[in-house]
Amino acid sequence: MSSALVPLIETARGGTLECLHHGAVAVCDARGELIAAAGDPHWTTFTRSALKPLQALPFVEAGGMERLGLAREQLAILCASHSGEPMHLAQVDLLLARAGLGPQVLQCGCHKPIFAELGLGAAPEQPDPRLHNCSGKHAGFLAWCVLHGQPTGNYLAPGHPLQRAIRQAVSAVCGLEPERLRAGTDGCSAPNYAMPLSRLARAYARLAQGPADPEFGASFAALADAMAGEPALVSGTGRSDLAFMRAGRGDWISKAGADGVQALASRSRAQAFAIKVADGSAVALNAATVAVLDQLGWLDARQREELRPWRSEAIANARGTQVGERRAAFTLQRAAR
Predict the structure, then answer these.
(1) Cβ atoms within 10 A of the Cβ of 286, count?
(2) b/e burial code for range 107-121 (CB count within 10 A of at least 16 → b)
(3) Taking the CB of residue 311, how many other CB atoms lie within 10 A of it?
(4) Which of 148, 267, 273, 319 has its CB 3.0 to 4.6 Å from that of 208, i.e. a possible disulfide?
(5) Tens-binned pLDDT, residue by residue, of the chain (337 aa)
(6) How far apart are CA 202 and CA 204, in angstroms?
(7) Is the pTM of this model over 0.70?
(8) C-alpha distances in angstroms, 17 versus 11, 308, 318?
(9) Cβ atoms within 10 A of the Cβ of 200, count?
(10) φ and ψ at 301, to 5 degrees?
């Protein structure tokens, strides 16, 4: 582990090193060729919510958008880790209604909505599964079941036809045999898969190239357009993915996952990177993401300034006094060609 994971972000207080956040980075193109890395680019990690666009792929491939008369807003919510704001609930409700279902069939569970965690409003007193950040993904799962005449009561079971279709799609996009995908259960009770960072980066590069992909071109084009075109629905007010995709001006597709996972792709370059911060720190993950963008040369002066808050360079105390600093501790190593 010591050689596979390297320091990505360090913090200092009073000039003395205080914290080190270790991890790894993989930068790949759509063919899976490694472009650059920090640490072991093939480090295996669970993808968590970064998997969502791939979990939506069977629904899109089955013509779900056309068959249910959906727009890109609903496709964006399938890929979302949303904040539970009214704009998010409206899309979840519409998607469920088009499938002829109600929110009671959602099996994602309930948690305090992210908008409340961020101090943007008070959480409702009554639990509501639509407020779960994964409810859009689950609504898409259920819509697939309706379209295929499959049972909805056990749609999260690994052996359910939906989950088998998802595993096959993930396998195809990442270029891994299904048995090489390490299975686990996500926070929303859905199956999730661990894979090498380089394979996750490859998957996002393929997503970013959209219609140029020889296998899933039309579906990737629709997913990429939805995510880049509706970043507020994929994320939420004050969230990192929203900030990254807005700064990308339609070129970047960004999706974070719990416990320190980030995938980000450039559509114009058909390249992507995946990051894992081993201790799961979201602050370190965001700072590392901006550092990777900078080191790859993907930032212009305006974007660099827009994303400065996400570098979290200054560490302040409760009085607003700067007491430390946070900085990148890695340099991407270009792959030999």
Answers:
(1) 24
(2) bbeebebbbbeeeee
(3) 20
(4) 267
(5) 457 999 999 999 999 999 999 999 999 999 999 999 999 999 999 999 999 999 999 999 999 999 999 999 999 999 999 999 999 999 999 999 999 999 999 999 999 999 999 999 998 888 899 999 999 999 999 999 999 999 999 999 999 999 999 999 999 999 999 999 999 999 999 999 999 999 999 999 999 999 999 999 999 999 999 999 999 999 999 999 999 999 999 999 999 999 999 999 999 999 999 999 999 999 999 999 999 999 999 999 999 999 999 999 999 999 999 999 999 999 999 998 7
(6) 5
(7) yes
(8) 6, 22, 21
(9) 32
(10) -60, -40
- DSSP-H helix ranges across the chain: 52-55, 57-61, 64-68, 72-78, 86-98, 114-117, 135-147, 161-174, 197-209, 217-229, 231-234, 240-247, 282-296, 301-306, 308-311
What is the CB-side half-sphere exposure of residue 225 using CA atoms within 13 A?
A: 13
Q: By C-alpha distance, which of 173, 154, 152, 159 is closest to 56? A: 173
Angle between helices 161-174 and 197-209 (to 10 degrees): 90
Structural domains of the chain, ranges and CATH numbers in brackets: 6-334 (3.40.710)
Tokens of 194: 């661990």
Strand partners, 46: 194
Q: What SS3 class is residue 315?
A: strand
Distances (CA, A) of 137 to 50, 96, 284: 12, 11, 26
User: Helix, strand, coil shares of the chain as percentages rounded to 5?
Assistant: 45, 20, 35
- What is the DSSP code (8-state) at residue 105? G
Q: Looking at this protein, which amino acid is placed at residue 11?
A: T
Distance CA 77, CA 88 (A): 7
CA distance 337 to 34: 9
Pick the closest to residue 174 from 263, 288, 65, 269 (CA basis): 263
Report the relative pairing of strands 6-13 and 16-29 from DSSP bridges: antiparallel
Do the Cβ atoms of 53 and 234 come closer than 8 Å?
no
Q: Which neighbouring-strand residues pair with 262? A: 256, 275
Token look-up 């305090």 returns 112
